[in-house]
Every structure is written in C-alpha cells, then in structure tokens.
Design a protein that fits this description.
The chain is built from 4 helices and 5 strands; from the N terminus they run ααβααββββ. The chain has 206 residues and is α+β, with helices and mostly antiparallel strands. A 5-stranded antiparallel sheet has the order 1-2-3-4-5.
C-alpha cells in the first residue's frame, strides 16, 4: 500500500502560487500607474482649455463686445480686423436682438441660437493658436440672457464728470442702469476625439 502522506511537488505548487500572486500585484501596480498618468494628462489638458476660455473671456469683453454694442452692423469690419484669430460672428439679426432685448423677445433666433450650449451656433467664435508643435484652441461664446439697461452706446464716456459737493452742475443726468449679459464661453482643443472642454459662465455689465 502506497504512502498517502507523500509531499512530493508541494514546493512546485507553492512556487507557482507565489509567482501568480507576484504577477497579480505587479499588474495592479502597473494599472494604478497607468490610470494616474492618464488622469494627470487629462487634468493638464483641461487646465489648458480653461486657460484658453479665460483668455477668450478677456478678448470678448474688452474688445469684441464693446465694438458690437456700439455698432451691431459692423460685424464684417470686425471680422476683417481680427482675421488672424479667424473671428466669426453669428447671424446679425439674432445677435442684434440679444444685444438689445431680453431673452423672451428673441423671435429671430433659432432654437440652437437660443440654447445655452456655446458650441451650438455660437454668437462669436475665434481661434487661439498654441505654441508649435502644440495645437490651438477654439473658443465659442454665446449670449444666453439679457437684461436691458440705459447705457449710452454712442461711444462716449459712461461715467459722469466728477464735481465737489458744492458743484453747480445744471445738466440733469438719469441714473445709469447698465445692461447685463449672461455669457457662456467654451474653450476646447481643436483636434482629438474626447477632448477636454472648459465651460465658463460670465456676467457682463455694459
């Protein structure tokens, strides 16, 4: 009768089990490192898109919107002056209503033009180029709501002239109530599927 308590081959089984356990641990570590690298790269791309969106807000509010508010019909001239950034201005009829009337009166705007998505039929869009070999960023902006005010759009100074308490200013000036615009600004890298996008909501007073 053979010996039923033989332990031949136990060392081999133990070595295989330890090898398998080591491989599982190594694969888990590699997966963690790979996921961490992907998340870090995604965050970096998002920060780049966010910076582009913030730069787009500066350009829009300091240069483009004041021009359009003073002369809504001068979109073609404005596009030619900013041709280096490929400036494109949406439908003039809809944009004129957005600049002057509340959202409930935008009857010349299509559903996509009235939506809150700046990537769909944007009012103003342009391209911010990156430093080669980096790709550039597209910035799309849209007015999604307007509260009309009584701002002077003739290009004159909006602030009243200063005077002392005892000043004798005989000109009657109405209280200035600025127009308020709710803007949505999206910055996105130009190429690549699943690209990161940054979306900003901005309140602009004129």
């Amino acid at each position: 009768m053979g010996n039923l308590r033989s332990q031949q081959g136990a060392a081999l089984v133990t070595a295989l089990m330890l090898t398998m356990l080591s491989l599982v641990i190594a694969m888990a570590l590699l997966a963690m490192i790979s996921t961490g690298t992907q998340v870090s790269a995604s965050q970096k791309r998002y920060r780049s898109s966010l910076t582009a969106a913030q730069g787009g807000v500066e350009l829009l509010t300091r240069e483009i919107l004041p021009w359009l508010l003073e002369d809504p019909s001068g979109a073609a001239t404005l596009e030619s002056q900013y041709s280096l950034i490929e400036l494109k201005i949406g439908g003039s009829d809809c944009l004129s209503q957005k600049l002057e009337q509340p959202a409930v009166s935008w009857d010349k705007c299509s559903q996509s033009q009235s939506s809150a998505d700046p990537g769909s039929a944007p009012d103003v869009s342009f391209r911010l180029s990156g430093i080669p070999p980096a790709r550039g960023f597209s910035v799309s902006t849209k007015i999604i709501d307007t509260v009309p005010g009584n701002s002077d759009r003739s290009g004159g100074e909006l602030l009243d002239d200063g005077s002392s308490v005892a000043g004798r200013d005989e000109v009657i000036r109405p209280q200035h109530v600025p127009a308020l615009y709710n803007l949505m600004v999206q910055g996105a890298r130009e190429e690549g599927a699943g690209r990161e996008k940054a979306l900003l909501s901005v309140m602009y007073a004129y």
